[in-house]
Design brief:
By secondary structure, this protein is α+β, with helices and mostly antiparallel strands. The protein folds into 2 domains: about 5-215, Jelly Rolls (Sandwich), CATH 2.60.120; about 225-325, Orthogonal Bundle (Arc Repressor Mutant, subunit A). The chain is built from 12 helices and 13 strands. The protein has helices at about 20-25, 145-150, 165-180, 185-210, 215-220, 225-235, 245-250, 255-265, 270-285, 295, 305-315, 320-325; strands at about 5, 35-45, 50, 60-65, 65-70, 75-80, 85, 95, 105, 110-115, 120-125, 130-140, 155-160. Helix 7 (about 245-250) crosses helix 8 and helix 9 packs across helix 11 (about 305-315).
Length: about 325
């Protein structure tokens, strides 16, 4: 898989070739759960911030003014006003004013905590050359969204003049910069929500051009027949699906459908269906739902005991153990 992806505006033309229903199927799962946000105002080019590894999250940085360098996996990426970098699987990296600057651990800097999920940092305030960066830490909790993140390259960089909606996205960046520069009522909420828009935009750009990166799940979603079958599975987990019934829904014979599904998705129909249901169950358990007969029937099971056995087999622990886990990742749908 590619380590870093850059985009130009031409790649967005690929979206015209996609089945719109399948495209919406992908975007439906791009809801980001906010974990933490920060705004940094940094003077000069001698500053450097070392950011820690945060498990099971993604991170993005948006430069609203000035410029910076992101160091990750031994490479330097130069960002200017309006540029965005999305790091799909958050790993340790640094942001600096120049390649030569020395990065210092984040928690050694004078951080001001504004709320439980928002903080600010100001360095070298008297320097005339100021860089402002908005950083967000997010998590995609839905199993399909989490799988989408797992199939992405480590880094996506979207340049200021290459946003999918051009000037519209530039206006979003300017609005974020305006909010960040002032002390407006509700400014934190506005900044975090608009930042999410830009992060999702970066993911959408990758989806549009994902054929270049051999992403099997995205290819499956885009396929006319298999994408439709996946949509039935995703949206109707309580239906007692069989290979025959799904094949009939997409106009294919049992054998042809089964073979094509396995070839494109990389897993059998019934295995994928079971994993999908168990990952949905895990998400709902994490959200506090009680596992009773109504719960298991909504996921296509008639027996609570059978459901519990399957849950432990797929997720790797029983429901009580899973509920008590602090940060247990979901089981990979395509493992």
């Amino acid at each position: 898989m590619s380590i870093c992806v850059f985009y130009n505006a031409d790649c967005t033309k690929l979206s015209l070739l996609m089945n719109s229903h399948n495209y919406n199927e992908i975007l439906h799962y791009l809801k980001l759960d906010s974990v933490f946000y920060s705004r940094s105002t940094l003077g000069g080019d001698s500053w450097g911030i070392e950011l820690p590894v945060l498990e099971n999250t993604s991170m993005f940085h948006i430069v609203t003014s000035g410029s910076c360098v992101v160091d990750i996996n031994g490479k330097h990426y130069h960002l200017r006003t309006g540029d965005l970098v999305f790091i799909s699987r958050n790993c340790g990296h640094s942001i600096k004013g120049s390649e030569e600057a020395i990065a210092i651990d984040l928690f050694s800097h004078p951080i001001k905590q504004v709320s439980n999920c928002y903080e600010t940092l100001e360095l070298n305030e008297k320097d005339k050359d100021q860089t402002t960066i908005l950083c967000g830490i997010v998590r995609v909790s839905h199993p399909a969204g989490a799988m989408l993140i797992n199939e992405m390259p480590d880094i996506i960089i979207m340049r200021q003049d290459e946003h999918m909606f051009g000037s519209m996205m530039n206006e979003v960046v300017r609005l974020i910069a305006r909010e960040a520069a002032g002390d407006f009522i509700g400014g934190e909420t506005v900044i975090t929500r608009l930042s999410d828009v830009l992060a999702i935009q970066a993911i959408r750009n990758w989806i549009d051009s994902s054929d270049s990166f051999q992403s099997k799940w995205i290819k499956a979603i885009k396929d006319e027949k298999i994408g439709k079958a996946l949509s039935f599975i995703h949206n109707n987990p309580g239906v007692v699906w069989t290979i025959e019934s799904l094949g009939k829904e997409v106009g294919m014979s049992r054998t042809s459908f089964s073979n094509k599904f396995t070839e494109i998705v990389g897993d059998s129909v019934l295995n994928y269906l079971t994993k999908w249901r168990m990952n949905l169950a895990a998400m709902r358990v994490r959200e506090g739902e009680s596992v009773d007969l109504d719960f298991v029937e909504s996921l296509g099971y008639k027996s609570e005991s059978a459901f519990r056995r399957t849950f432990k087999k797929i997720i790797g622990m029983n429901i009580s153990e899973y509920r008590n886990q602090k940060e247990e990742p979901l089981s990979g749908l395509l493992d």
